[in-house]
Amino acid sequence: MNTANMLRLVALAAIWGGSFLFMRIAAPVLGPAVLIEYRVLFAALFLAAVAWVMGRRGKGAPLDLRRNWKHYLMLGFFNSALPFLLFAFAARTLSASVLSVLNATAPMFGALVGAVWARQKVSGRAALGLVLGTVGVGLLVGFDHVSERPGAAIAIAAALVAAFSYSVASQYAKSARAVAPFANAHGSMWAATICTIPALAFFPAPGEPTVGIMAAVLALGVLCSGIAYILYFKLIEEVGTTSALTVTFLNPMFGILWGAIFLHEVIGWHTVLGSGIVLVGTALVTGFVPSFLRSPAAARGK
C-alpha cells in the first residue's frame, strides 16, 4: 500500500470514527428516525450530484432501477437503514467510544453468518477470535459507567444487532448480481431513504435542532456517508477489498479519540483493554495479518 492509499485509509477511519461522535451529538435531540432520514437523504443527494458530474465526464454508473431495484432495497435496508437506525437509537445512551468498538464486531458476526448462509466452516482460529471478541465486548461495557444508565442494556443490544446487520449485508452482496460499487452506494442510499420513512411515525424528534445539530447531521450525510463511500470504493479499486477492510481496525481508535476530545469521554483501562481484545478477536476471525508480520513470500502474494 503506497502513501496515498495509506492516507486514504487513515482519512476514512477518521471519518467513520467521527460518525459516532455526530450521532451522539444529534440523536438525543432529533431522535433516531429523523436523524437517519436526514443522513441517508443528504448522502443520496450528494451521491446523485457526484453521479451527474461523472455522467458529464462520460464515467457515469447508471442505476438501472428496473433491473436492480430489489437489490438496492435489500442493500439499503441491511447495510444502511437498519444499522444506522439502531446505532442512532443506541447513541442516545452509549458513548461514542463504546459505539465505535461495538461496531468493530461486524466481521465477527460475518463469520457466523457465513457459516450459516454459505456453509463456511469456522476454523479453530476464527472460533478463538469469536470468544475473544465476546470477552472484549463484555469487558468494555461491563466496566464502563455508561452501562449503568437507564436503557443501557437495550442500547448495547441494538448496537450489536446493527453490527450483525452489516454482516448480513456483506454476505448478501457476495451472492447478489454484480453491480458497480458506486451504483451500489448511490442506489442503496435512495433505498435507505425510503426504508427509513416508516420509522418516523414511531420516533418523532424530541427537540428542536440548533445550527450545530444540523451541522452534525450534514456531516453525517455528506462526509460520513457520501464522501466516505467514495474514499472506500477508491481504496477497493486501488488495493482490493481485503486491504480496504483494515479500516475496521482503525475506526475504534478514532471513535475513542473524538469522543475524548469533543465530548470529554473518559478513556479508562477497560476501554483500552476491551478495545484491544475486540480488535485481536476481529483479526483472528478475518485472518488479517499486518504486512510487517508476514513472510516475504506471503507479502508478495506467493
Task: Explain the overall architecture.
This protein is an all-alpha fold. It is built from 12 helices and no strands. Helix 1 packs across helix 7 (181-196).
Brief overview:
With about 300 residues, the chain is mainly alpha-helical. It has one domain.
Uncertain runs are 295-302
The biggest beta sheet is recorded as: none
Order of secondary-structure elements: HHHHHHHHHHHH
User: Count the strands?
Assistant: 0
User: What structural class do the secondary elements suggest?
Assistant: mainly alpha
Work out the helicity level. over 70%
Tally of individual domains: 1
Rg value = 19 Å
Give the overall form: globular
Distance, first to last CA: 17 Å
List the total number of helices: 12
Mean pLDDT: 85
Q: Which percent range describes the beta-strand content?
A: under 5%
SSE order and pairing:
Blueprint: H1 3-56, H2 65-91, H3 96-103, H4 106-117, H5 124-142, H6 152-175, H7 181-196, H8 211-239, H9 241-244, H10 247-262, H11 269-286, H12 296-299
Q: Any descriptors?
A:
12 helices, 302 residues, mainly alpha, disordered C terminus, single chain, globular
